[in-house]
Each structure stands twice: as C-alpha cells, then as structure tokens.
Inverse folding.
C-alpha cells in the first residue's frame, strides 16, 4: 500500500514533468502555403506540416507553452493548436485581417487588425474579446514587456509606436519613428524597446518611460528593409531581419552600429531566438526556407526547406 | 482708477496671448486647397489622404481640412491659410497659378508634360509621372520582353506589394471606386505633406515647400523612399500593365541604367 502510494506520487510527478516539458519544436507559418511547418529542434528537420487555413501569419505560444496560436488572416481567425499532438484544438474570431500578435504573461493575446486601424485583446481560453484599442493605419508589430506592463503596437502607415498600458488597455504615448515601423522588442526590464522602420531602413532605440528616441541606426544598404528584431540573451546585440538584403543584420545594442550581416535566404522577415540564446531562426520568405544561426559565431548552421513564403516563427523551448 | 483698469486689461491680454500660444503649440490646424473638377479622381485621392492625416493627427492634436476651389474662382480666392495647393487642371492655368503663389507648394496631380518639369518652376511639385518616364519604363520592359504591349502606370488597383494592397483596400472601402494614377497622386500629395507636419510641426507654406524639396523621405506604398528631383518631379517606381494585369515594375531589374529611379525620365532643368 505504502509502495503503491509512492508509485502513484512518482507517476503523477513524472506525468506532470512530461506534460509541462517543452517540445523543443520550431513552428513556422507559411503565408502562401496555408500551413504551419514543424521543425524538430534536435535534428533541425521538418517533422510535420499542419494545414491551418488561408494566409497564416502571426504565431505565438501560451505563457506555459501548452498551446500554439496561429493568426489565419483571410479567415479572420486565430487557431489553437496542441504543440504535442499537432491537432487543431479550437478556433476563434480575431477581428478583421489579424496579422501579428503577442501573448501577455497573463495569457491574453494582443493582436493587430491591419485593415481596421485597431488592436484587439482576446482571451484565448474563451475566444472572448476583452478590449479594442484604436491605433494608427496598418497596425502591424506587437510587443509586450516581460513584466506585462506595457504593449507596443506599431502602425506602418501612421509611422508610430503606440504604447499601451496593459492594466487598462489605454494608449499612454504615441512615438513617431521612421517610415513604416514593423516590429519591436523589449529588454528584460521593459525600460528600453527596439523597433524597426522598414522604408527608412533603420532601427530605433526608445526609452519606454519617456518616449524619447535614444538612438537611430541604419541597417545598411538600400535593399535592407528591416522587419523582425530580437535581442541576444545578454542584451548586448540585436538581430534584425534585413528583408530583401537577404541577411540578418547584427547590431550593437548600445551604439546601433552594424557588427556583421549574416547571409540567409531571400526576403527574410521573421526571427526568433532560443531561450538559451544559442540559436536564431529566420524565415526566408521568397526562398521558402528557415535559416538556423549559431549565435556564438553568427554563422548559418542549417537551412531548412519549409512551405511557401514562410512568415512567422516561434520556438517551443 | 483708469491706470488700474489698463493694468488689468494689459495683464489679461498677456494671459490671453500666453494661453493662445500654448494652444498653438499643442494644436495644429492644417488647410489644403484642391483646385479642379469636383468629380476628379485626384480629389478622391486627396480626400483619402485627408482622412488618413486626421487619423494620425488625433494622436498628435493635429487637424486637417481640405477646401475645394473651382477653377473659375482661382483669381479671387485668398490662398494665405493653405499649407499646400493641390491641382488637377490644364497646363496654362497651372503655370499661372504657380506663378501667382510663389511661396506655396503647388502640386500637379494630372499633367504629364515634360516641359512643365524642365521649366523648373520653383514651387511646382509634380506627383504624376511624365510622358518620358512612362516611355522609359516601357522601353526598359521591351528590352526584356520584346513582344510586350504593356503600358506604364503610376498605380494599379491590383497592386499588392509594399502594403499597396492595404491602400487599395481602404481607398475602395472609403471612396467606393478603385484607385488609379490620379487618385494615388492626390493621396500622395496630402500624405507626404501631413507626414511632414507630423514630424516637424511645420505649418508655414514656404517652410513646407523647402522641406518637401530638400528633406522628403516619403513612403508612397511603392516599396521605396521617394523624393523630388530638381525639376520638381517625384522620383518613383512605375508599373507595367498588360491586359489590365501588372507584369513588371520599372526600373526593370537587370535592364535599367542606372539601376535606380533616375533611369526614368528627364533629370535636370533646361539650361
């Protein structure tokens, strides 16, 4: 009896560990492939492809990693996928033309509705819309500070970072940046954010408490139309997807000077960095590939063929 | 008694000045004029640009208005309050108007005449491409595809790249027609000016003219930063359209010399 009880406790413990353990998989939305490619994190090969519906773009994970969310733009929906079984669990209406989103530490989804000049907040458990925030034209990038205090929504045609206070979902500041701001990321403390501006080909570093632009840095040649931006684990460098420059631009996080450009596939937009900071994944839209970058030497260690026009990437680590 | 009264008047006047100054610093009202037929496609574009300017302006306490002025009333109208004047008129009226308003940007949204560019009128800003720009675009394309009968256009309602899809979608939704070259030009004129107001808070027409001519870095949803030549012509990519389908963009890759926007059209003034 005693033994049985211990066994049950042990079994329950193991089960718990198993269910909470991240799959190590990398998930990619294929904008024109209408699918999600699943890359095995150890072998770096595609182990499955999930049909999700027309024009999947934004992709993200719940805070505990147990659910994968995909914005299916043409269907105006977010689909919820089990990252273990790869089955679509449910779906909910996510406003008009949902594009990019970020998941708040409390589990809510902040999403940009590109052709409606607004951002919406959804509870993915119920699919219920919690709030709607009017922002500028063509809202695109969404970033949330690690402490959950602030949300940035970029509006591409209004050239702004809209800073939203998450506690009441109101706009606290509108920061004019370069032409066509597309993506942003926060530092761990949440005091600083980096944002890319596609047409002016630059990255801005912004003080989130004052709204002041601290630094501007060019991403290089005229073909370089930056999109996603991620910070290294030690926050000393940023990685910027260089668009049609076909490289990932590595910049000093303090000076915003270019350290190097890593050649990847054509029209690179999406970026994700692993939690341990050792690998960066890029989606190379026109090439239909994902490049895996080793951050210790900034070299591509593998190029993985995925679906048509890979767009977003998230790591379940 | 009288002295006290004057002091009171003086101080309240100063207070009034202060208040209005603060209000001025925070709120900007910007006025555009449009001259042309009220059913011209360029006006629909300008209206679309205006609604977008006001959408941006609500975050910055800036308000934008557009007055429609008929060609008959041009000579008697007071243009002093306008940041810029948009026109879809004939070349003679345009030339006279630009001459009469030397310190205001006068946008040309419809005339393709090359001579109007090489004349280098100081305050003339031409959004619509010239005949030569269109010809250069088709010539470049024919070097690649000798049988092509494609014609050159500034814009097309099926253009999707560079968020052109979004502009086409919201224009159609709001104006109930498809966006064409003239409506794109009207939109672009308002958009580049209101973007400049948002960034610089300039609300003086002469300063705006100078800014547009020397510092512009405009995102016209054609995927590349645009600015003006010394002729007053906007540098821009041109679409090649065959059987109402976009087949290419000029500068045509691998053909255009130089491989830049300056492979299209005449670059400098008449000497």
């Amino acid at each position: 009896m005693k033994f049985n009880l211990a066994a049950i406790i042990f079994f329950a413990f193991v089960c718990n560990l198993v269910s909470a353990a991240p799959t190590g998989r990398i998930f990619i939305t294929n904008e024109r492939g209408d699918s999600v490619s699943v890359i095995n994190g150890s072998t770096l090969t595609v182990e499955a492809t999930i049909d999700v519906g027309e024009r999947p773009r934004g992709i993200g994970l719940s805070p505990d990693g147990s659910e994968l969310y995909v914005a299916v733009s043409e269907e105006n929906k977010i689909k919820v996928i089990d990252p273990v079984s790869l089955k679509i669990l449910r779906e909910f209406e996510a406003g008009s033309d949902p594009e990019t989103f970020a998941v708040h530490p409390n589990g809510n989804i902040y999403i940009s509705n590109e052709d409606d000049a607004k951002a919406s907040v959804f509870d993915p458990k119920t699919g219920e819309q919690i709030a709607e925030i009017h922002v500028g034209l063509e809202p695109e990038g969404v970033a949330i500070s690690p402490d959950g205090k602030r949300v940035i929504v970029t509006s591409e045609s209004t050239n702004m970072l809209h800073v939203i206070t998450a506690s009441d979902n109101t706009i606290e500041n509108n920061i004019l940046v370069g032409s066509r701001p597309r993506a942003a990321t926060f530092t761990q403390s949440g005091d600083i954010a980096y944002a890319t501006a596609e047409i002016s080909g630059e990255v801005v570093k912004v003080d989130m408490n004052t709204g002041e632009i601290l630094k501007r840095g060019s991403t290089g040649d005229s073909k370089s139309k930056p999109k996603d931006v991620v910070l290294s684990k030690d926050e000393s460098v940023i990685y910027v997807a260089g668009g049609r420059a076909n490289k990932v631009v590595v910049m000093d996080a303090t000076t915003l000077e270019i350290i190097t450009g890593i050649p990847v596939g054509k029209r690179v937009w999406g970026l994700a960095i692993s939690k341990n900071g050792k690998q960066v994944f890029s989606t190379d839209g026109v090439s239909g590939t994902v490049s895996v970058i080793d951050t210790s030497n900034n070299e591509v260690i593998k190029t993985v063929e995925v679906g048509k026009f890979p767009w977003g990437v998230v790591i379940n680590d | 008694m009288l002295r006290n009264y004057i002091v009171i008047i003086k101080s309240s006047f100063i207070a009034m000045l202060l208040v209005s100054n603060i209000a001025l610093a925070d709120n900007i009202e910007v006025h555009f004029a449009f001259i042309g037929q009220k059913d011209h496609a360029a006006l629909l574009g300008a209206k679309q640009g205006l609604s977008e300017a006001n959408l941006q302006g609500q975050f910055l306490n800036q308000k934008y208005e557009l007055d429609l002025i008929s060609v008959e009333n041009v000579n008697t109208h007071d243009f002093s309050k306008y940041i810029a004047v948009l026109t879809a008129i004939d070349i003679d009226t345009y030339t006279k108007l630009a001459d009469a308003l030397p310190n205001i940007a006068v946008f040309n949204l419809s005339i393709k005449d090359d001579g109007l560019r090489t004349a280098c009128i100081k305050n003339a800003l031409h959004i619509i491409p010239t005949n030569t720009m269109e010809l250069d675009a088709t010539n470049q394309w024919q070097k690649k595809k000798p049988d092509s009968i494609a014609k050159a256009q500034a814009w097309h309602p099926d253009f999707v790249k560079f968020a052109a899809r979004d502009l086409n979608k919201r224009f159609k939704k709001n104006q109930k027609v498809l966006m064409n070259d003239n409506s794109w030009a009207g939109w672009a004129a308002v958009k580049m000016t209101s973007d400049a107001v948002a960034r610089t808070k300039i609300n003086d027409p002469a300063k705006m003219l100078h800014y547009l001519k020397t510092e512009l870095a405009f995102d016209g949803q054609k995927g590349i930063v645009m600015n003006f030549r010394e002729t007053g012509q906007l540098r821009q990519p041109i679409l090649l359209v065959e059987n109402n389908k976009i087949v290419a963009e000029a500068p045509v890759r691998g053909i255009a010399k130089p491989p830049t926007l300056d492979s299209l059209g005449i670059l400098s003034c008449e000497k």
